[in-house]
Amino acid sequence: MSIHSVSGKRNTVFIILVASLGYFVDIYDLVVFSIVRIASFQDIGIAGEKMRTGGEYVLNMQMGGLLLGGIIWGVIGDKYGRIKVLFGSILLYSVANFANAFVHDLHTYATIRFIAGLGLAGELGAGVTLVNESMHKDKRGYGTMLIAAIGVLGALAAFYVAEHFSWRKAYIVGGVMGLLLLFLRLGTFESGMFHKSVTQNVAKGKLSMLFNNQERFLRYLYCLLIGLPIWFVVGIFITQAPEFGEALHAPVALSAGKGILFSYLAISIGDIIAGLLAQVTKSRKLAVLIFQISIVISCFLYLSSTGITEQRFNWLAFFMGLGVGYWATFVTIASEQFGTNLRSTVTTTAPNFVRGALIPSTFLFEFFVNRTNIITAGYIMIVLLTVIALFALSRLKESFNRDLDYLEV
């Protein structure tokens, strides 16, 4: 084996490590609000009857930041490089984390979560794009699988930090981790595909290219739609566990924090299973199909669990998390559907648009809650979102083993 070959493998391993740890901090920051929502709201004086709707407001502001940030960082990644996104995004959300530790009212809280969302938006897309472009086409699924499997363990870290420290210190810990990781990234380098695209006279990171061609637009839309159920399960069924538990007549209040712990542990396992399944079957679509079906089954079990105990909830949170564990495969599919000059834009916007889709999903959920009840609304939403996701999946072409060294024109 040549020196260059050994060096190349070491560089690839380092890129995967940096991207994985970045996603670890990213997930920590994404879920820490869901874990400390009640404690932080009580501390800043939010009334009990406003806990749920106030939580939706703050979470939607964070998702709005992710939505806008996905566009900004995606374009930057294609125009100026994936590495610049990895540095800029983590700096922004680390600073926002520190600021979150000093809020004293709901609107400031929401505004800073919006800024944090802007920063968080660039992390996963840039990391996955860089890894996919640096690995052999037969093996890149393993790279993104490791990013997600390691990254989602950040939720476990968020739970344990919140259990042992105040909610304000939990945000400070997130900021410190981000700044430490910033220094580790000094050794990263750009992918050869990006350097090659720089020398070619073609539009890069041009958002309008996703909408000025019908075939390309539909390809992009279907990429987004296959991920719709993921964040609804996490953002509504898990985050609002206390409210669902009350509606299901749980003997004790259900803990959203424990729900996050068990669901994200399962998401990590699910990402590994989905990645391995895709590698073995050589089909990412088949892996996603199996996981989407399991989402419906686990959510129906949850919504029908009258008298749900804390133990049963923990198990169901685990199974729901396992169902949405195709997150890394979903992002990989989006990355593989587009050429180098649009790949960062798509890979960064797709997961953030899916996260941002929680905003209209929440409004629609509330519409059904007000006309029926929280349980019936849950049934309606998970069926609706899964049917849309399955249709979108059927319209996408299989992307496993596709050569990514090409341009969109």
Write the layout of secondary structure elements.
Blueprint: H1 3-44, H2 51-80, H3 82-100, H4 106-120, H5 123-134, H6 140-151, H7 154-164, H8 167-184, H9 192-198, H10 214-225, H11 228-238, H12 241-247, H13 256-281, H14 284-303, H15 310-323, H16 327-336, H17 340-356, H18 358-371, H19 374-395
What does this entry look like structurally?
With 409 residues, the protein is mostly helical. It has one domain: Growth Hormone, Chain: A (Up-down Bundle). It contains 19 helices and no strands. Helix 1 (3-44) packs antiparallel against helix 4 and helix 1 (3-44) packs parallel to helix 7. It starts with a helix and ends in a 14-residue tail after the last helix.
Structural descriptors:
409 residues, Growth Hormone, Chain: A
- Provide the CATH topology: Growth Hormone, Chain: A
Global structural class: mainly alpha
Average pLDDT works out at 89
Overall number of domains: 1
Task: Please name the fourth-level CATH homologous superfamily.
Answer: MFS general substrate transporter like domains
CATH architecture: Up-down Bundle
Compute the number of strand runs. 0
Order of helices and strands: HHHHHHHHHHHHHHHHHHH
CATH class: Mainly Alpha
Largest sheet: none
Residue share in β-strands = under 5%
Number of helices: 19
Spatial gap, N to C terminus = 38 Å
From the alpha carbons, calculate the radius of gyration and give it in angstroms: 20 Å
* Overall 3D form: globular
Helix content: over 70%
Poorly predicted ranges: 1-6
